[in-house]
Amino acid sequence: MKFGPVLLSLSLAVAGSSIAPAQDASTANSTPVLTITVEYLKPYKNGMAHDKTESAFVAAYSKAKYPAYYVGMDALSGKSRALYMTRYASFAEWEKTTKMLAENAELANAIENASIADGELLSDLHSEVFTLDTDLSYHSHTDLQDHHVYQITVFQVRLGHHKEWNEVVKMVKDAHDKMGDKAHWGMYEIAYGGPDGTYIAVSGDPSASVIDEAIAGSKKFVEAIGGPEGMAKLDELYGQAVESAHSELFAVNPRQSYVSDEWIQHDPDFWKPKAQEAETKPAEKAAAPVSGSR
Predict the structure, then answer these.
(1) End-to-end CA distance of the chain
(2) Residue 204 forms part of a structural domain
């Protein structure tokens, strides 16, 4: 296995999602749930045009004080698309917020109207549901409000080879323990919407400079894993466990994110840019139907 973007993304990831800090704690009887909605945009329909339609969703959610927050981001690699992540403490919590949406006629109407406008810009839409695997995660962070850049690495694990997959992740975690570096990630397993055996390592950081740091530390990782012999073992296990993998890079778009007041107060210059305030006020005055659930 080459020491390339796939392994780098695994070693850099963070237990990231769009939830507010108050929602980050899980209980002994629940499993944290991460929903990801991907909007594929028609050519040249991104940028300000998409910001405008998405700001309608944000305005409506804010007006209704809807409790499920999400982070929106634009793809910096691959097809032109936007991605929205929402995390829930459990499936029961997800169901509860969905019922709140259904019971709020004004909000439901706003979502429908905003969705129609937004749909004119889209070529496709896809949603997946994941659950957090704490055993495969490493040094999870809670400073999600500071994350401006995300990496997502998708691993398709061969059916019947989860033992080897677990060993691969353990080797990587042990190597980072020896290095004592800043590595941290959240590993999620597919629950609905994709092939069995799909895992994603989700990473969030304040700056893309962490990618440079990881590349610079690649030699130390090889030493920590056990040199060429250790890398050969990791390569063999990785080949047995993983059928395919790819990594994508995203930039958080505050104009398309619905986040808590605490996040906004923490960094108002980022989460509430002046341009967004100017765009939102006319819509509020006109009482235009807006918003959408991610």
Answers:
(1) 36
(2) yes
H/E run at residue 259: none
Q: Are 34 and 85 in contact (CB under 8 A)?
A: yes
CATH, residue 186: 3.30.70.100
**Where is average pLDDT lowest: 177-181, 269-273, 287-291?**
287-291
Q: Which two tokens stand for residue 79?
A: 């097809």
Q: Count Cβ neighbours within 10 Å for each residue of 102-133 and write b for 16 or more, e otherwise.
A: eeeeebbebbebbbebbeebbeeeeebbbbbb
Q: Looking at the 3D structure of the chain, how many domains does it have?
A: 1
Residue 253 falls inside a structural domain: yes
In-domain check, residue 291: no
The pLDDT value recorded for residue 193 is 98
Eight-class DSSP state of 285: H
Please give the model's pTM, rounded to 2 decimal places. 0.84
**Per-residue pLDDT reduced to its tens digit, 55-96:** 999 999 999 999 999 999 999 999 999 999 999 999 999 999
